[in-house]
Amino acid sequence: MDRIAEFRKWKVQCLSKADLSRKGSVDEDVVELVRFLNMQDQFFTTSSCAGRILLLDGGINGFEVQKQNCCWLLVTHKPCIKDDVIVALKKANGDATLKFEPFVLHVQCRQLQDAQILHSVAIDSGFRNSGITVGKRGKTMLAVRSTHGLEVPLSHKGKLMVTEEYIDFLLNVANQKMEENKKRIERFYNCLQHALERESMTNLHPKIKEKNNSSYTHKKQRNQEKACGQCITKENDKEPENDDDDLGINITIFPEDY
What we know:
Blueprint: H1 3-16, H2 31-39, E1 43-49, E2 52-57, E3 71-76, H3 82-89, E4 96-101, E5 104-109, H4 112-124, E6 131-135, E7 140-144, E8 150-153, E9 155-156, E10 159-160, H5 164-203, H6 206-215, E11 253-256
Parallel strand pairs: 6-11
Antiparallel strand pairs: 1-5, 2-3, 2-4, 4-8, 5-7, 6-7, 9-10
Helix pairs in contact: 4-5
Protein name: tRNA wybutosine-synthesizing protein 3 homolog
InterPro entries: tRNA_yW-synthesising, tRNA_yW-synthesising-like_sf
Family: Belongs to the TYW3 family.
């Protein structure tokens, strides 16, 4: 079986499976994006989260929060208010931690060139921790990620360790991150549509396509802001909030066995 046929088989198998996430469905803020990607011949999504605010009760052994071994006291994909957190904290018996987790998306790509297009769009849209993984069987995965998360402990052994005023402050920070996260998703979707339109056009002109492919490796040496062109609307036409991302990140390929 050739690579393209095998990719199509993987796609059919993946998209026919039941959604095994806690929610059981795609998050509202990324439904259109996920549907758009899955309509393309060269992509299909394997998992996604639009971004969320969590309150986890991680037990009393150690400080590291393990989501699979803890109690989810609160989860929302929308801005959160203090009263909801205070009520949820009353159920905590161990070390409760407030977290904001930004948008994450995993996409299997037909070939490396397709993954490079998505990777470029992700970087230019503010998801600068994105990367590509190539498995031994030829599976090419792109992970869209950023680093503007938040994780703060609030209680220890069921006892609240901070003031309500501080909780209010943390929620203000988390909600601002949620808003910025939403803008990045919109920017990614808009830039993706334009990038695929450009790719479709270059497929009609082999010389242009060859030039674009050879220039990918050197792209980070140029001004990235020109990459999206006019795909960023005026309300989103500003720099993403400062975070710890490396502006000069290059594509990273990790050989793994899937």
